[in-house]
Amino acid sequence: MLARLLESHEIADKVRHFTFEVPELNELSYLPGQFVSFTENVAGKPVTRAYSTASPPKGNRFELCLNIVEDGHLSPVLFHLQPGDTIPMRGPLGYFTWREPIKDSILVATGTGIAPFRGMLHAYLENGGTREITLVFGVRYESSLLYRAEFESLAARYPNFDFRPTLSRPGEAWKGRRGHVQEHVLDLLGERRDMDVYICGMKAMVDDLRQRLKALGLDRRQIVFEKYD
Question: What integer is the mean pLDDT of 42-59?
Answer without folding.
Answer: 90
